[in-house]
Write a structure and sequence with these properties.
The structure holds two protein chains of two kinds. By secondary structure, chain A is of the alpha/beta class. Chain A has four helices and four strands. Chain A has a single domain, classed as 3-Layer(aba) Sandwich (Rossmann fold). Helix content of chain A is 42%, strand content 22%. In chain A, helix 1 packs across helix 4. Chain A is globular. Chain B is mainly alpha-helical. Chain B has one domain. In chain B, the strands form two sheets. Chain B has a three-stranded parallel beta sheet with strand order 5-1-6. Classes of the chains: A alpha/beta, B mainly alpha. Chains A and B meet through helix 1, strand 2 and helix 2 of A and helix 5, helix 8, helix 9 and helix 11 of B.
Chain lengths: 104, 455
């Protein structure tokens, strides 16, 4: 099970928009995943395999973070562009050589 | 039998939390979710509403304290602009009405998008919730109850949910270079103000995106941190003015500055809790709305929350935020001299609305547009709450006011319409129409009449 966290400033609007698009993409790719959205303040407190967010919030997440934490942050240029999300999720999974099926 | 009906109507559906949980359940059933998912979603919505209420209780306690020391220390009242805080406050009284109004807004939005060329589906759930709140509050205080109340707020809110993204769209197109997404954030009138100023002053000014901005402002993008940065002095300064003796009646022997400091952080904690509740609350409603809307209106344009525009001009976001803050501080100091209420700057609005306004300003007038327009935007979004305050006061809300410009505008227009003050309503609609016409050039005039009818 891939754990995906979508992050924005308030954890209400944009992160939710990302979540809705990401869910659709993951469903299409047939990757079992748990997608949630939250604020940038709380993001550090959650365990996740992958964080989807925008540039401004990624900067906060990667400031003073460990190498491993930095790698799980994926920056999106457009919030709901499913093509971009799909491309980046696939690239991310390839890069991390992740076995998405036998997690948990 | 009668007592059973009464139980259903009063105890079951009269409880806002239960009502909104039922609405979420309906949405989940319509989407044909599994039984387990339906149970989970329904329960989480119920939980979310109660968490939201818990947050509001924390906020109210700390706000009451701030009000007391502010009034005692300076001999005048300060108003916090926090749309979530006042919405929560209203929800304690009118929770069921707000929930039903929200449903009508959803429905009206879909109907308008289906029937007219304005294909916008407003997907920023919390903004719709605030809109539903002001509609319910103003209608209720004007004496409406039941169905007329819900329909008035709902139809008006639904029209706003289509009109506001439509007014912003020409500039959004210019910013994003595409027509795929729209802006669904009820601060649009403020953005238009900034865009208009930028258009006037910004001839030949270069884009903010050529600037190198220091990294030091980045931490302000953490909403709660930014809020604390403002709230702490907001509590400490009146605490010093009110003095240790006055505060000792609240503080139980704790040092008065320490106590004020803790209260300010409590306020932020309350907002945090409140937003966590709203998040749970909207989790099932928004996807249901989206799913249904996209099926009925196939060529719909989703209107999304304002950070959708941030990546197109990240520097303009920071510049707009700072300029708006400067404007709102000037407004806070200057407007009381003219007998208006003192509005304390709300950093949350300043960041999100100010940042987006900065992007608008930059698009039409470069750096000068972002800076000068931003200051004017700050003044504008301080002025609007200030003129809404007397109305809210008469309804018994003190110390806190709405912050988002379109929400306030709706309140002003509806409120004045109920008082038969059509001059104000007319002038306001002309003002907005003029702004939109000026900013968007030759593009079609907004359909202001729609607002008129439903009011």
């Amino acid at each position: 099970m891939l754990k995906v966290l979508c992050v924005c400033g308030c954890g209400l609007g944009s992160s939710f928009a990302i979540e809705m698009s990401a869910k659709a993409v993951l469903k299409k790719l047939e990757i079992p995943a748990k997608v949630e959205h939250t604020t940038v303040s709380e993001a550090g407190a959650f365990k996740s395999d992958m964080i989807l967010t925008q540039k401004v919030f990624a900067d906060i997440l990667t400031a003073d973070a460990s190498e491993e934490e930095i790698r799980r942050v994926v920056v999106l240029n457009k919030l709901t562009d499913k093509e971009e999300i799909e491309e980046k999720i696939i690239a991310f999974l390839k890069l991390h050589d992740m076995k998405v099926t036998d997690h948990e | 039998m009668n007592s059973f009906v009464e139980f259903i109507v009063k105890d079951l559906l009269g409880q806002a939390s239960i009502l909104i949980a039922f609405i979420a359940m309906l949405g989940l059933i319509l989407q044909k979710k599994s039984l387990g998912k339906i149970a989970e979603g329904t329960f989480k919505t119920l939980l979310g509403f109660l968490i939201m209420m818990a947050g509001i209780n924390i906020i109210v306690a700390t706000l009451t304290f701030l009000n007391d020391i502010f009034t005692h220390g300076f001999g005048m009242k300060g108003y916090i602009t926090d749309v979530a805080a006042i919405a929560g406050l209203a929800n304690r009284e009118l929770g069921s009405e707000v929930a039903l109004t929200l449903m009508v807004i959803f429905a009206v939005n879909i109907i308008i998008a289906r029937l007219t060329p304005l294909k916008y589906i407003f997907l920023t759930g919390q903004a719709l919730l605030w809109m539903a709140t002001i509609g319910a509050v103003i209608g209720y205080k004007a004496g409406l109850t039941g169905l007329p109340l819900i329909l008035t707020g709902g139809i008006f809110g639904g029209a706003m949910a289509v009109l506001m993204p439509a007014l912003a769209q020409p500039v959004v197109r210019r910013i994003t270079g595409s027509d795929d997404v729209a802006l669904g954030h009820f601060c649009t009138i403020g953005y238009l103000v900034q865009a208009a100023v930028a258009k006037v002053v910004g001839k030949g000014s270069r884009s903010t995106e050529d600037l190198e901005l220091p990294d030091n402002f980045k931490f302000l993008q953490d909403t709660y941190l930014a809020m604390a940065v403002v709230m702490v002095p907001m509590y400490l300064i009146p605490a010093v003015a009110a003095g240790p003796e006055y505060i000792s009646q609240f503080s139980n022997g704790v040092n008065f500055l320490m106590y004020a400091f803790m209260q300010s952080i409590q306020f932020v904690a309350g907002v945090f809790v409140l937003y966590s509740g709203v998040r749970l609350l909207l989790n099932e409603l928004v996807p249901a709305f989206r799913g249904i809307a996209m099926r009925i209106v196939p060529d719909a344009k989703p209107a999304l929350d304002c950070p959708v525009l941030f990546p197109y001009a990240p520097n303009a976001v920071i510049v707009g935020f700072l300029a708006t803050t400067v404007g709102s501080i000037i407004g806070m100091l200057v407007f009381p001299m003219f007998g208006l209420a003192m509005i304390l700057p709300g950093l949350l609005t300043n960041f999100f609305a100010g940042g987006t306004a900065g992007v608008f300003g930059n698009a039409l007038g470069g750096r000068r547009g972002a800076v000068i327009g931003g200051v004017v935007h700050g003044l504008f979004i301080t002025f609007l709450p200030a003129i809404l305050v007397p109305m809210l006061e008469s309804y018994g809300f003190t110390g806190v006011t709405f912050s988002d410009s379109d929400v306030i505008s709706s309140g002003l227009v509806l409120g004045h319409a109920f008082q038969n003050n059509w001059l104000f309503v007319g002038l306001f609609i002309i003002f907005v129409a003029f702004l939109a016409w000026f900013v968007n050039g030759k593009s079609a005039k907004p359909k202001g009449e729609k607002i008129h009818e439903s009011a």
